[in-house]
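DM from R.C. (forwarded with permission)

"hey, sorry to bug you on a friday — could you get me a structure for this? deadline for the figure draft is monday and I only need the backbone to look sensible"
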Amino acid sequence: MDDTFDQLPLQLDSSSKAITANPGNEALNTELQALNALHRSFLSLSTPVPPGPMPVDPKRSAQVNKLRESGNASYKKGAYPEAIRMYTFGIEMASGRPAWEPSGLVREEISGLYANRAQTHMAMQNWPEALIDAETSVEMKPVGNAKAWWRKGRCLMEMGRLEEAKEWIGKGLELEGSEADMVGLMKEIDAQLRKRGAKGLDQLS
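My reply, with the result:
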């Protein structure tokens, strides 16, 4: 025996989004009332209901990119404080993504912005600030981030913390392979350590 059913036209209110059936029946109206009540309860929540799996807000992505590009442009002009301001705004914008957006995207955005801000601090010889930013960038993205590894190593060397710099770059080379800039920096650090050692021997003699 074939199943039979009655087609009941549903109507959606454009303002309230409430669903009604006309003509309807008591059972259907009861179900629709429950559905409409559930919809109203969602609207009253202080925290928005997450949408579907792993959505990305294109407007926020565009804003983050624009702030990064503005920072890059200011850096190239030598307007370092303005570049830092733009990168900081970008970090705040990327960090403000809702929890349901892909964490990998957030880490990628934040890592790049911290690495750029570290480079800007280095241009101003703000070594401690640059060190912290470079290290944060590596924490967000340990692999495929040779520039941030190099920048923290350079900061440590400029601050005279040669043993720490050597250890840090050594770890970076384990993850990044024989990356040319880090290999070069390691040679500089080793040369500085040898020079320091030779100076210490001269003082003893």
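R.C.: lifesaver. The CA atoms of residues 21 and 29 lie 7 Å apart.
me: no worries. The chain has a mean pLDDT of 88.
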